């Protein structure tokens, strides 16, 4: 399968994506724990059905030492016992922030308070931006039908 668009070959898209990717790098360097970042990126991508992002974040997390058990259980994190309370708070915020259009009422005060209990303001800001960033990346990839399966860890980081 070939992608519908080669974003980096298009002058306008290439310029925009250069800045977009630098925003992603800034998120990687934030105080939000790396494992949490990968779990959140993976969960948002699962919800949105973005195969290329699922491929990337599964492989990046594994390369960083994440266990296959935790990676396999991200989709069912509520029933899994392998996630910390802080990770659960991040995953719940990610789900609520991604499923805005599902009529779920957005992010409730309770969900926000749960996340704020585990993360300081700088980490919360990074978490919110990461959730938004991943939703944008998912849409860019899904609309252009970017193929998945051949990502190699470290390629974009």
TrEMBL record:
Ranges for domain Carboxymuconolactone decarboxylase-like: 16-95
Pfam families associated with the record: CMD
InterPro entries the record matches: AhpD-like, AhpD_core, CMD-like
Lineage top rank: taxon: Bacteria
SUPFAM superfamilies to which the protein is assigned, alphabetical: AhpD-like
PANTHER family recorded: 4-CARBOXYMUCONOLACTONE DECARBOXYLASE FAMILY PROTEIN (AFU_ORTHOLOGUE AFUA_6G11590) (PTHR34846), BLL7811 PROTEIN (PTHR34846:SF7)
Protein name: Carboxymuconolactone decarboxylase family protein
Organism encoding this protein: Sphaerisporangium corydalis
